[in-house]
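Lecture notes, part 5. Sequence design as translation. It can be helpful to think of inverse folding as translation between two languages: the language of shapes and the language of residues. The source text, in structure tokens, appears below.
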């Protein structure tokens, strides 16, 4: 496609460093709104009858929200051609970890009062805690290796392989959610699991497509194998 001046039109917007910094600052501020709203509720008696449960649930929900938002960046970039979106992915992933850490800390501190024995027993005994703990443990190395230095040290391929564990984190998070809700409230984990399935399915399809066409489709250059030089 060409513009009025005859130059090729590139639909991909490429922000200047200042514009990108502005977008990142705005995103940072927006991502802190759930925390601000919890803090506001805490100071104004607005966390309901069971504040600990409320905070645990809110931080858990926002962990899952940021996980899904982070996983949306790659397909969104591929479908829109807006490659700069990738520059926001690290911040979104770190916010997922941030809310997971708050969620876990709420459980450790306000729910279990740092009683290590009780926590260890709970992790072994209650499957939804086991699975949540596994999901959180998988997020730790991803957060620890999110810096440019860590990427350089690990090398792109190993870094990518490590960060693929985020798909397993998503599956564990969905299992955690299904396990903890009552049968009457299954609609919420179903929605989250459905969105996760779409995001993982899109990646699986891309991966399969990247292996290239099957030999039949590859065409004429392939000849059938001959077992005999001449007919027996
Ligand atoms: C990636 C990690 C995790 C994600 C995405 C996650 C997500 C969630 C979600 C979505 C909820 C339900 C919110 C609602 O009912 O609206 C929840 C609740 C909960 N999670 Fe997690 N969670 C994670 C890790 C953990 C860990 C490590 C623990 C503790 C060891 C934990 C303990 C809990 C508890 C106690 C509840 C509340 C259960 C209840 O109200 O009965 N979660 N979490």
């Amino acid at each position: 496609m060409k513009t009025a001046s005859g130059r090729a039109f590139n639909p991909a917007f490429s922000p200047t460093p200042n514009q990108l910094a502005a977008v990142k600052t705005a995103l940072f501020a927006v991502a802190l709104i759930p925390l601000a709203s919890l803090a506001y509720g805490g100071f104004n008696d607005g966390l309901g009858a069971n504040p600990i449960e409320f905070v645990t649930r809110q931080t858990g929900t926002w962990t899952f929200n940021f996980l899904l938002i982070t996983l949306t960046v790659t397909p969104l970039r591929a479908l829109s051609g807006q490659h700069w979106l990738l520059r926001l992915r690290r911040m979104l992933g770190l916010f997922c970890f941030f809310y997971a850490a708050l969620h876990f800390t709420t459980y450790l501190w306000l729910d279990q009062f740092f009683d290590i024995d009780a926590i260890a027993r709970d992790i072994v005994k209650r499957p939804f805690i086991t699975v949540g703990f596994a999901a959180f443990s998988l997020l730790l190395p991803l957060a620890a290796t999110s810096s440019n230095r860590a990427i350089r040290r690990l090398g792109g391929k190993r870094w990518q392989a490590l960060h693929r564990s985020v798909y397993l984190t998503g599956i564990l998070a969905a299992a955690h959610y299904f396990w903890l809700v009552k049968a009457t409230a299954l609609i919420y984990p179903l929605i989250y699991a459905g969105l996760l399935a779409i995001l993982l399915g899109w990646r699986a399809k891309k991966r399969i497509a990247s292996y290239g066409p099957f030999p039949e489709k590859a065409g004429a250059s392939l000849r059938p194998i001959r077992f005999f030089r001449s007919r027996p």
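The translated text above is only one of many valid answers, since several sequences can fold into similar shapes. The longest helix spans residues 51-80.
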